[in-house]
């Protein structure tokens, strides 16, 4: 019996907090002007995407004691942007990254429940943690948390939020023409949650939202992160976008679900993916090369080099070989701010791997940095890219992709105009939205309704 064809899930990532955007491109626009968010979201909705993904930066990143000049300066508040986008979109899911290390369950649950009401059931929460004491200095409870404590807090944070969401059943509010609105259940909204991380009780003041709870995303790749996703997330934002790595990650995370009483379809694997389109594969390859050169200028290459070497390399020649000295092991004193620091568990081993690759392939420092700091997942004509995406999803390397264009906000338009119709012709992507909520789009069970039993697949 042949394996059933999987439907592809597509989403769009408004970048901002990364180095993928080509700032020098004339088409590149503002990351603060609301018009940019509107254009991006409405393009994604025109393409019938599941959702738009908005990252978050809680502090301006620094390198060498100065503001990190390779990143966007400024990031509007996530909830404010998503709430505004709810008014200019009708079906697109609205996913926001909100940190569990520096926030409180009551305020975050209240904000997401409100967003779910405002959007008629399209809210999603990407639950992240932060180890970064530098970012923590912005908060009353700043400082360092070891990895296991970060995830313990995140798990407890999410459980507390679920307690708040579930404190309303959804049928407690009754409108009486004579006496006004009243509660049929006087205990509606009452909650109590106590452990080593949170000691809270009271009454949650936002009634049950259209999805019951927002869709939960998780983005960690460590063993703790994978386990957290298997236990509590609806989707995981992965960095494994190639066939072999994707299949290994897919099998590993989905294989953890059974012990939590969950099925393969209860958790979606959605890697981030970049793309470059051309009329032909050769033209796309040429464009992709130019994009990478723009993304990793000589100055950028040195910045990335310093993040691993943990020392000032401003005098290093980006067109020469890698430094002969070894990285400084220990606290990174060059780069500050989590997203700006690429985490290397063994900097010296990584440096030696880079040296071996550079020697074997005769690469300069800049050429090496271009190779190791990022890759373009899909390069080719629209037909080629559609085939690549479909192959990876049908091969269980993912359930779909979160697309990150290198031009904002208009970089998504060519994909929607040229690739989406080809996926629709192949019968693997919707031509119209069939439901109204994000859970509908992702084919996830509603927490109030449950799901019919089904055999695990994938």
Automatic annotation (TrEMBL):
Luciferase-like domain span: 25-395
Stated name of the protein: Nitrilotriacetate monooxygenase component A
Family named by the database record: Belongs to the NtaA/SnaA/DszA monooxygenase family.
Keyword ATP-binding: no
Organism of this sequence: Mycolicibacterium smegmatis (strain ATCC 700084 / mc(2)155) (Mycobacterium smegmatis)
Keyword Oxidoreductase set for record: yes
Alphabetized Pfam families for the sequence: Bac_luciferase
Gene Ontology terms, MF aspect: monooxygenase activity; oxidoreductase activity, acting on paired donors, with incorporation or reduction of molecular oxygen
Keywords of this entry: Flavoprotein, FMN, Monooxygenase, Oxidoreductase
InterPro entries: Diverse_substr_monoxygenases, Luciferase-like_dom, Luciferase-like_sf, NTA_MOA
Source organism phylogeny: Bacteria, Bacillati, Actinomycetota, Actinomycetes, Mycobacteriales
Its EC number(s): 1.14.13.-
Binding-site residues, FMN: 97, 151, 222
